[in-house]
């Protein structure tokens, strides 16, 4: 038996001896060969086309609208373009499920532009009117015309860039070529995982770590086709345009790590199975992850400065949202009161950082006697939910009073969702590493909430823990901002409501 990764005498891997390859479908990320990622490309196209179309339309009628100087025109274009892009990102226009689906992407873009238009109207008519003495900002009708022109230009831009992007994808501009070393259960898991992605955006090539000369290896019972005959790593890299190498062997004892060095020396990233899986799925898969890998892997950096910046962000955002939503909260409070004359708020003990308990504050959405038989998870279409409560849960407005918990320092804007002590005890006993989610404060929203639907089972709790561990491992203040923005999509499309 001969190792498939045997090097030539010149120490350039003779991967001509890696004769078997299978193609399947992975996902999307920044390519090594100076080509932008698919998401970055679509976002860049949107920004250029939106700003360009806005500039063309507004400039054509700027004198009639009452603009006095080019600076005023530029201020409007920058305001509307930046808001349009921010809400397009928040609505999920650049998520994998929207990248290659025109209708999904356009639907989300329309929602994003509608919200952006409303906010742009307020900024243009009130904020910019204080900065510039121009009729365009002081007249409500002219401000509305500007917003409608800008929104229309953005929609036209979005409907132009998406067919252009799909045409580029069909020509494989964004396709990554990933060499998977291994044909066992780990390699099969990657193949099955990436088959759900779009073939235009990525392709996997499988090779066996060792094989019998005339016997083609199999991946999950499927034969694989041979690699091209080459004499070196560089030649194989040029022919297949390999962007990443992933070690997915089931037994590392038979692998010669020296044979991976030519890839590394040529600038091709080499990942172990768990690191690659984490990067691609956005979670720490507990099925494959051993505790020692978590100990030695990078991440879990949460220093004094990070905590300080996170706290400043928490106070700023929670206070701003409370002031912004105060009139709506008053109306909701009266609606809850008049439905059954019960209490407006619901306070319940939850577990946060280091196992410390606190009283979470929510709008009451269930009957007063909802837990007369003891604590239980809420379920889909729960009969204990009131009529007002059903709307509040679907829209997630019942969570807004938790902003008070954030101001009090009991919660953060972003973090693992807090559970009740009785459930925490159960889950600690049933799920490995569950206690790690209490390393930081519980959050109003979180990485798990924007990536996984609502669930009320141990299996759901374990899956959410995998997302929570990814957040803990890869924390940054910028990621917190990103999660807050993406929560907009969950709220608007009622994803995960119960």
Automatic annotation (TrEMBL):
It is a multi-pass membrane protein. Residues 310-492 form the Bacterial sugar transferase domain. One of its GO terms (molecular function) is undecaprenyl-phosphate glucose phosphotransferase activity. Keywords: Exopolysaccharide synthesis, Membrane, Transferase, Transmembrane, Transmembrane helix. GO terms for biological process: colanic acid biosynthetic process; polysaccharide biosynthetic process. The keyword ATP-binding does not apply. It holds the Pfam family Bac_transf. It is found in: Membrane. The chain crosses the membrane at residues 41-61, 73-94, 106-132, 144-167, 315-338. GO terms for cellular component: membrane. Belongs to the bacterial sugar transferase family. This is Sugar transferase (PEP-CTERM system associated).
